[in-house]
Amino acid sequence: TLDRASVDVVMNEIDEYAVEEALKIKEAVTSAGGSGEVTILTMGPERAVETIRKALSMGADKAVHLSDDALKGSDAVQTSYALAQVLSTLEYDLVITGSEATDSRMAIMPALLAERTGQPQLSGARKVTASMEGTAGVVRIERQTENGYDVVEAATPAIVSVVEKINEPRYPSFKGIMAAKKKPLTNLTIADAGIDAAQVGLASAPSQVVEFSNKPPRQAGQIVKDEGDGGVKIAEFLASQKLV
Amino acid sequence: MAEVLVLVDHVDGTPKKVSYELLTLARELGTPSAVVLGKGASAAAEKVAAYGAEKVYVSEAEELDGYLTGPKAAVLAQLVADKSPAAVLLPSNSEGKEVAARLAVKTGSGLITDAVGVTADLVAEQPIFGGSVVVSSKVATGTPIITVRANSTAPSEAPAAGTVEQVTATFSDADKAARVVESVVEDKGGRPDLGDASIVVSGGRGVGAAEGFEIVEKLADTLGAAVGASRAATDAGWYPHQNQVGQTGRTVSPQLYIAVGISGAIQHRAGMQTSKTIVAVNKDPEAPIFELADFGLVGDLFTVVPQLAEEITKRKG
Ligand SMILES: Cc1cc2nc3c(=O)[nH]c(=O)nc-3n(C[C@H](O)[C@H](O)[C@H](O)COP(=O)(O)OP(=O)(O)OC[C@H]3O[C@@H](n4cnc5c(N)ncnc54)[C@H](O)[C@@H]3O)c2cc1C
Ligand SMILES: Nc1ncnc2c1ncn2[C@@H]1O[C@H](COP(=O)(O)O)[C@@H](O)[C@H]1O
Questions:
Q1: Best of A95, A97, A188 to mutate for ligand 2, by most ligand atoms within 8 A of CB?
Q2: Which of A116, B23, B170, B246 is the most buried (most CB within 10 A)?
């Protein structure tokens, strides 16, 4: 088994849950007499190394870091192309990502990767179980929906994204931190990964920023201390805003 | 005018409010065509016609509900190829965004998510950094695929033909890779859906216990609001996970958001900070939620919230 979990410049907190889930699956496989490996894959600037180290010190086995000036300014669609190119050079059963990055908040990387790789998309998992049926790997997740929850199943290899309900990420131990320094870290340029320079980077981004504008800062609100009529005060405010 | 495809979010043929908002917005960009997919889709035709859909593309293929996102993206990709629309609009909820992402890859197009407005020349506006900065973006490649947040446009009726066209789609194995084996519906107690509601009342750790949510619900009911919760409250089992607002819960942008006993952690703010008006009740004057609040009340929620509910009931007469 090879799991990929990703890290951003300051590891996106949600990605710690992805790493944790990968480690848990590996531990389950190992204790059942099998073997597995967790690989961290990230695309990002030089600084991403710090987060890779954190993931390795949590217990991941090795890491792949895609970093190249040509990638600068890539949008999500381009990033998914670059990550999928790297994935195509790796062998894995599961790719595990966060459901939604704290910075981008787009929550689309798992769907983009699934479409690119042709592998199943199991997004928003609050529970993951991986098992073997004969010689085929099966992964089953429980995902929150707007009305309740779904159970979704697919054959491996698959792309799974996790929400923070799934587990409690471990803290790296001192031993883990020391061991991380010796773990293999592969640095890839776009040429190494077979990424076409014409398809990444700001100039060819399929979505382009036209302008940024500052919104007038939110008017500092009114803060009132309750003097026994707090509820009435709020009602008066709501009425003044024609909200009730 | 060019066609603009709108993916309709619906339950058994009853469109959600956001779908009417998207159709209203689409009228500014071209001629709206509604795309209604899945169980009960045909029943939506008349309803979407009332909001300006000249055409209604319908498919009730079983695959659309039986597998995650792939089949819906496949139907849309086929429509994009056949109709060459000026743009495709989808709701910016988790399914809408995932379908949009797959559609972008299938059609080689650019994608913009979380828009709160789209101008006639297809420039989409997205709030970032908690709404303090607005980014205007344009799709430069392929067909613009834009997901738009609920409550971005006020829906208005404009009757149109609503000519129904059945779509027969073919699905690849990759489209049918993630099979839904079970779909469980949990009770919402008859309250509006968080994504659609124009008022949301949310409770956090300050509410103290599952029973404490009764006062949150009571306030919500007097306002016709949906009920949300912070992660602290859902993790404690006080309120269902489906009601969590925030980074890993729902993103809401209602006219009014009332935060009760919620500190305002960044992950919570991520899900509610573009609400038009924010009211907070918290006993800690230093709580970060007050930085966002248009009206903050420093006090004990157990006295303030019931008083507020009572006062509103009184005013409604
Ligand atoms: C990866 C990740 C994802 C996350 N996703 C989410 C998410 O989607 N949504 C989310 O909400 N959080 C999320 N969190 C958690 C978030 O960081 C906070 O821990 C959480 O929002 C805190 O919830 P809270 O405000 O209810 O609790 P607290 O921070 O404990 O705040 C409780 C507040 O209630 C007030 N209070 C207590 N008693 C009273 C009283 N009697 N009257 C009035 N006020 C009172 C206190 O002053 C305090 O400010 C996430 C965290 C991580 C790491
Ligand atoms: N550049 C990247 N490198 C590795 N993983 C990424 C990258 N961007 C996004 N991801 C993964 O995709 C998840 C969702 O991101 P997003 O779609 O940007 O909200 C993140 O939590 C990461 O696990």
A1: A97
A2: B23
